[in-house]
Give the backbone structure.
Amino acid sequence: MIKLIRPITKLMPEGAKVMINHIDIRVTGRVQGVYFRASARDIAVSMGIKGFVKNEADGSVYLEAEGNPEQLDRFLRWCKEGPSLALVKDVKVSTSPIQHFKDFVIR
C-alpha cells in the first residue's frame, strides 16, 4: 500500500473516525479516447472516492482523488490497468493537501 501523508480525520455518522488522504495521479500510455475518464469516474463513485479526472495536452490523464487509504489503494490498482481499451504504461503518484471535494467529476 502507498504511504500517504497529510491525513485528516473525518467524523462519520456512527462516531467512527476515518483517515482521508489526497493523491495526485498521472497515467500515461494509450489512455485517451478509450473511455478512461468515464470509467475512472464510475469506479471512483462506486468506491466512494471524491475528486476529478481530466485529459492533458501531452496525451496523459491526470486525476486527483480523496478517500481513505484502502479506497485509494484499490483505485490506484485500477488506474494501473484502466478500462479494457487502455494500454497503461506508467502511473505516477504524489500526495497533496486535502481539497475537500464533494464528488468525483470529469473535467
